[in-house]
């Protein structure tokens, strides 16, 4: 199965998109110095006010392009595509990266998950996981959001979170029959699993997903999930 065009562009680093040095909306937003549009909030206020406002997170749409900027236009044309010079500046600012992690944790809560380890990217179910999982299964517009989130995390060198998310969802599907709808599997197999630039990790994750899909006697357990993340942290590779 061929990769979608947006994924190919992402994996190649968007070579046909030039940098525009005069554009700094994402950098300024993440420095808490510019309000997002159309919601007119600084990022710190958005995190504080919307963290558990799941109705707002579900039915508002313009905020996701501000919280997770990538080098593509989204549905909010009041947001600015991420510029290459912004990536460099934002990666050098610990406060910016802290806010990006906070954005990720907010969306994880919306999806019924929470971070166990920032070092490995390990996740677990949140206390309200049942209701949030049900919402994720029945609200497929979130699957495009997840693709954007994963691309953004990769742009900023936070791919432990990509791996932690993908393999957590896989373990939920394989061992627990959760988040296992056809639409989620389709988005995961074609888009999400390819939204990380580390080639070896991407290959291993895709191979593991295929084993789960094609071998009925292969179960990717929660222990296997934690072991994989531990190997990645200790050796830099998922391989045994």
TrEMBL record:
A molecular function (GO) term: opioid growth factor receptor activity
Entry GO terms, CC: membrane
Stored InterPro entries: OGF_rcpt, OGFr
Domain Opioid growth factor receptor (OGFr) conserved stretches: 24-221
Chain ranges passing through the membrane: none
Any Pfam family matching the protein: OGFr_N
Family to which the UniProt record says this protein belongs: Belongs to the opioid growth factor receptor family.
PANTHER family (alphabetical): OPIOID GROWTH FACTOR RECEPTOR (OGFR) CONSERVED DOMAIN-CONTAINING PROTEIN, OPIOID GROWTH FACTOR RECEPTOR OGFR ZETA-TYPE OPIOID RECEPTOR
Name this polypeptide is given: Opioid growth factor receptor (OGFr) conserved domain-containing protein
